[in-house]
Amino acid sequence: MKTIVIIGLILIYIFFNFKNNIQTEIPTRNEFIFIVCMFGKDIIKSNHRLRKYFYTLDKFLPHSKNVLAVSEFTIIEPNLIQYQNFNISIERYRNETFQNIIRKYKYNGAAHFYYSGMRSSFYVNYLKKHLEIKYVVVSDDDTLYFRDPFQLVVEDPTAVHIMEDIFPFSKKNDGNYKWTNAWVELNNFTKLKCGFKIFNNTLLSNEIKDLIPLNSGLMIGSAKNIIKLNDLISSRFLCSGMFLENAEQGLLNYLDLSGELKELGFPIHRHNLFNGSLLSCPDLLPIDNYSQQINSDNLIAVHHHNYLRLHYILKSPLLFQTVFNMTF
Which pLDDT value is given to residue 89? Predict the structure, then answer.
């Protein structure tokens, strides 16, 4: 009898603990934040595309919480961060200048890739310090939000949502092929030292050539999963050092192909141009496909909007056209 009572108490404890865990997974909007990084700039002016990024948040997602992360030495023009419906938190992170990076790595192309990789380490550091943040959107500054991405985490709080690009790895003159292949060809000594899972294949193999690469310019999900993903990217990136074409987007795709992303323990929801909510490189869509997607109620964000040609913009809803054409 005593054994039965003990087992019953254990089952009750498990039930209520499980119930409480489920309840903590229900997203609430006040735990949701947007983060954008712009490292390495001496000055950020008000006519930058970053202003358009914030304008769409002010227009379509009033009262959203926003963080702008910049280098310690960056000057920000005041009117860039003045909006009617929300405040922007400025976070300063590290002090590497362009000249310092070149001196350190002896490679002129290092700065662009280094600053991109730096954002992964910022996400990890910032989110670990702000445990009140449960869900997060991290993106490039050339992303425009026309609807609320919060709905994605409501639908599945466990997934991380990432865009796909449009061209498969077999397109050798595309950036994704060059960037990912650079990580494929990184010497095994460095990979083993840095904890990589060795990937014994080529991007032009039958198993891989038709796969579509991920785009690291927009990720949406729980803070804990964004931390896991970006901690992996940051640790591998910083350990490997600078080398030709070592963009962190190529690293993301290497980690995807090698299976390390799956080992993180959460699903990755891939949004492609034809049926996803997040559009990357929409100017590469056939015009009819673009028109269908941009007018879809499913659309949440447009990435690389600055490349859109006029006849594409004219296929957009009138309100979107107005935003696309803004020059500030």
Answer: 96
Cα separation, 102 vs 3, in Å, equals 69
For residue 19, pLDDT beyond 50: no
Residue 22 has pLDDT above 90, yes or no: no
Q: What is the DSSP letter of 151?
A: H
Q: Where are the domains of the chain?
A: 29-324
**What span, in angstroms and rounded, lies between the C-alpha atoms of 209 and 138?**
28
**pLDDT mean over 237-243:** 93
* Nearest Cα to Cα of residue 236 among 117, 105, 107, 122: 117
Residue 2 confidence (pLDDT) above 60: no
Per residue in 82-137, pLDDT (tens digit) is 898 888 999 999 999 988 888 888 766 778 899 999 999 999 999 999 999 999 99
Residue 18: exposed, middle, or buried by beta-carbon count in 10 A (0-12, 13-18, 19+)? Answer: exposed
Strands (E) in the chain, as ranges, are: 32-38, 43-44, 65-70, 75-76, 88-92, 135-139, 143-145, 160-164, 214-222, 268-271, 278-280, 301-303
What tokens were used for 226? 């964004």
Q: Candidates 1.20.120.450, 2.60.40.10, 3.90.550.10, 3.30.300.30; correct CATH number of 29-324?
A: 3.90.550.10
Amino acid at 180: T
Residue 80 bridge partners (DSSP): none
Q: Are 53 and 138 a contacting pair, CB within 8 Å?
A: no
